[in-house]
Design the sequence.
């Protein structure tokens, strides 16, 4: 286990999260006691990463019965439905958020808890289960990934998909960490991931702690390192995988996939099944969040651009399925054709 | 003309340059009175851009006879040869630097000036000629480019190739500016260009002054904007073009070229003939400068990465000729096959 945690329920009735906006310079944990505050933390990227924001939303909903002044469980459920609306809107692209919210709500609706206290217990238990499952799922996914990571592999990685993007262990970075712990002599190119610099700030911070050899490089250098023969494979995570295998992930994933294919470098996407959304037919139906211009114009408090420079800041992009060599899930490797093989995965 | 200048000879015997490290927050001009100091300014990127550093090297050499204590022109020439060695080493990738140094030295060697003062006059005149030619060449290149820029074009641009990268007007950005001044309703995606952010800092600053509509976007978003049908063409500059048409340019150029080809978006490289080096057979012979890690770990004074994070910082990449739709030069458009057509351009 790492020497930090991403998100945890405190027995005093609070959700504690490491503030990822402050890493790596400061290691600070924030506490949240309302679902609205958790939604704000998701929106402001105190916590990010599809599986992590799923767990955050679940714990956020668990705060509602905990603090409700209503003793009638039906009224508490009504408060939870309202909180769910706010949580779902916090970020539109990752499917895990609405997946976790829906899972908690369905349980709460069907349980017919006799009291607020009973509902509180049920919901918190389910949120804890979501968090624990995430860790198990990541470990399983990471084990399946090992067949794709040869000893000595040089891996190109985008954004952060480690413990910080999940409850623990991580998806793509979890697989990388497992490879290192298994004694494989791997090396990781960590791209910076502008504009939020999740690679330079978070992935670098994690890999230093795990002792995995790496270099931080500019996002746009991936082609250079592939062309000069230095990269064996790419592994990234995802915020949503559509039924046809199209992948929504952090902006820059698509560029990486295109240059990888140009160099016949395998391009793997590591995702828990909860990130795969068969209800989304293709990437065309996935909303791409536009984030505030300040993420581009400023780094910490330093202004980069001239005053009044207009900015485009799409937070995600779509990588069409044809660029994806394989999906790595907790139940094994899924290869094309994705429409058929993803349907099988869920049947 | 823009309301600033990149480089200018001062009649008091100094080279004045706008400090591009400080833009856009501060507009400061530095003065240099020795060739060594000019070499330092090139190395530290006070001035950058292949044509601009060519002019800087020429003016740097003109400082030698100006301040020499020797009255014997042969001894002064010896000092110039020594200064030339230092200037050439300042940055290895752009060919304009050694091209300008060689041009000044050849004149100085062949002129057999009767005195230090005569040599001083000759050399300064040649340096001024290099600077004036650069402006003329850029205007001519920009006019030829117009046939490739339709009215209403949405253009993706990398790094800075404007007045700041040249003595005035610029190469790729000069062509863009001319299109705007001709009344074409163009729009420019300005990528940030990590790590030095020449796009976010310098190109944005220039385009605001020229009134050209644009947006600053992360480098890695180029594929997203092309895939969603928002880009009509790319124009970039170059630091060196090899005899076979391979292009050395700012890191990230290659990624942009690969995603452009994936989307059938034309990819143009705007270069003065002085950037084309027939003595370099292909991109494989071009040295790629590795710049200091601090360019990646820090932005202004803000540290991004954790302490001790290793960094890769290749300043340039090679775009193989097959990705280049056409080269735009002051003598017209050059299309494939480049080996034949570049040879013709110089014959």
Sequence:
């Amino acid at each position: 286990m790492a020497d930090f945690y991403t998100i945890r329920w405190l027995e005093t009735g609070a959700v504690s999260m490491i503030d990822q906006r402050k890493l790596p310079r400061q290691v600070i944990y924030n506490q949240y006691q309302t679902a609205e505050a958790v939604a704000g933390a998701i929106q402001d990227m105190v916590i990010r990463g599809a599986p992590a924001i799923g767990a955050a939303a679940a714990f956020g909903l668990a705060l509602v019965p905990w603090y409700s002044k209503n003793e009638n469980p039906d009224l508490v459920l009504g408060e939870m439905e309202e909180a769910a609306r706010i949580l779902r809107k916090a970020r539109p692209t990752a499917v895990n958020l609405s997946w976790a919210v829906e899972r908690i709500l369905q349980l709460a609706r069907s349980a017919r808890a006799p009291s607020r206290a009973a509902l509180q217990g049920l919901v918190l238990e389910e949120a804890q289960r979501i968090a624990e499952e995430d860790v198990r799922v990541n470990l399983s996914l990471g084990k399946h990934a090992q067949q794709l990571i040869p000893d000595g592999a040089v891996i190109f990685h985008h954004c952060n998909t480690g413990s910080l993007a999940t409850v623990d262990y991580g998806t793509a970075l979890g697989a990388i960490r497992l490879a290192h712990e298994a004694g494989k002599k791997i090396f990781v190119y960590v791209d910076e991931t502008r504009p939020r610099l999740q690679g330079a700030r978070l992935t670098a911070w994690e890999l230093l702690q795990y002792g995995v050899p790496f270099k931080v490089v500019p996002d746009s250098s991936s082609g250079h390192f592939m062309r000069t023969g230095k990269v064996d494979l790419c592994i990234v995570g995802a915020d949503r995988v559509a039924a046809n295998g199209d992948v929504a992930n952090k902006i820059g994933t698509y560029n990486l996939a295109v240059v990888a294919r140009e160099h016949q470098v395998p391009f793997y996407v590591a995702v828990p099944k909860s990130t795969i959304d068969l209800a989304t037919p293709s990437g065309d139906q996935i909303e791409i969040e536009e984030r505030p211009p300040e993420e581009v114009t400023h780094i910490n408090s330093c202004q980069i651009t001239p005053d009044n420079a207009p900015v485009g800041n799409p937070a995600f992009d779509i990588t069409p399925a044809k660029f994806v060599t394989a999906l790595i899930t907790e139940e094994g490797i899924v290869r094309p054709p994705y429409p058929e093989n993803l349907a099988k995965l869920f049947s």
In short: Chain A touches chain B through 57 residues (CB under 8 Å).
